[in-house]
Amino acid sequence: MSQTINEPMADVRDMYLLHTMFRREFGQLPQLVRAVAPGDTKRSEVLGAHIALLSGLLHLHHEGEDLILWPLLQERGGDEAGAIVPVMEEQHHSIEAANTELARLLPAWRSSARGGREFADALERLLTALLEHMAMEEERILPLAEKHVTAAEWNKMGEHGLAEAPKKDLPVIFGMAMYEGDREVIKAILAEAPLPARLLMPLLAPRLFAKHAKRIHGTATPPRVTR
Fold it and tell me: What φ, ψ does residue 150 adopt, rounded to 5°?
């Protein structure tokens, strides 16, 4: 793609917002699972629903990159993209395998609150793979996307996730992402949303996430991963 193309290029700041959410929420899961007393099914059901939501969001996020971002970078990014995109794809395979293992173990733990050690170990493996991937993506992929992917193309990834994510959970998901989000980035994301969402989300989403966080983390203000 020519650098002189008369079209806005990708604003990748929303990826940092999403990565921050994943780092915070996935980062606390192993400890939260280990703290569940064997047989405490009330707690395992609440936490299990949260884990299922995060697992599904991660799958959708990576599916969008697989379908949209990697082909564009391979086509336009030259040798630099040719060297890093296959690494990203392989990391996605590893993360998906860890996420699939998580999905296999989740129902039994969620319904019985037993087998927590094995389940927490699976969460640790997923977290390790995910943290490595996100760090490399921020260092190597996002600068390429800014140069070679248009804003319209970039936004298709978000549209994919929104179309497939459970609609009833969207306000909580957005509040989860907003919690440590830069105000200007949030404003830019909402600028692409329908008018009702632009008006309601800034008010509704933080309140719903605070309520959700209190159930999951025991506080409406869980530890942040950004300063």
Answer: -75, 160
What's 9's DSSP letter? Answer: B
d(CA 49, CA 44): 8
**Beta carbons of 19 and 141 less than 8 angstroms apart:** no
Q: What is the distance in angstroms between the CA of the first residue and the CA of the last residue of the chain? A: 37
Q: Give tens-digit pLDDT for 17-76.
A: 999 999 999 999 999 999 999 999 999 999 999 999 999 999 999 999 999 999 999 999
| Alpha carbon distances (Å) from 220 to 110, 189, 203 | 23, 24, 15
> Please, what is the angle between helix 13-34 and helix 116-136, to 10°?
160
- List CB contacts of 38: < 8 A, sequence separation 6 or more: 113, 114, 116
Q: pLDDT (tens digit, 9 = 90+) per residue, 105-155?
A: 999 999 999 999 999 999 999 999 999 999 999 999 999 999 999 999 999
